[in-house]
Amino acid sequence: MTIVAVLVAAALSLSTSSAGAPIEGLALTLIAWAGLGGLGIAGSLAQPGRVDLGEEDGERPSIIELLSRRRTDSWQMGAITVVEIEDPRYVAVAVPGARPSIFVSRAVRHALPPSYLSAVLAHEAAHLRQHHTLLRRLGAWHAACLPKRSGLRRELASRITLLTELAADDAAASKVGPAHLREALAALNRLAPSRELGVRAARVSALHPQGCAPEALPSSRALSRQLRPEHR
Length: 232
Hints:
By secondary structure, the chain is of the alpha+beta class. The protein has helices at residues 2-19, 22-46, 63-68, 106-111, 114-129, 132-144, 151-176, 178-191, 195-207, 221-227; strands at residues 71-77, 80-85, 92-95, 101-105. It is globular and about 45 Å long.
């Protein structure tokens, strides 16, 4: 794409420099660069195989890796297909597309009670509804323009990832209740200790002190029926 942009821009520059004023030639050249650059960005964002910011640390599985796992169960959550996969890690990942999916490891499904799993699925569904994968890919494109070992590049990547996680937390808290979300985050943090999970759980408690009180936990039966099947 870069080579094509250079050739087209050069051709436009040469053709306009002989036929019109230099300012006209410069303007058309800049327009050509902008247009081709926009096409390049759009093309890169549309490629589902691209690695987004959340996969740089090696802890978050790639979409290709998820698709290679053995599927042990699946069910519908509205327009979203939830796919259980055989994986020893505690992972749940939203996969956008024409048929949006949430891949959840069997380890997570068996380790969490229904209300906690409902909160995890609501969090991943929020990633799909709010197009967070697209935002992360756009952020990854910007980060790629910075030096590879730049601290600013790492900071940009981590900030974008964290902000999308917090936005999904807020949506999940509204969907299933802050108490369920806080307990789900705390449970995952106990299973796979992570500073980010601890901070997110504390944030939910700070934002919803009344809603996170033990007596505020509503019955999880309705959530369980809505977001996952009863069998395991």
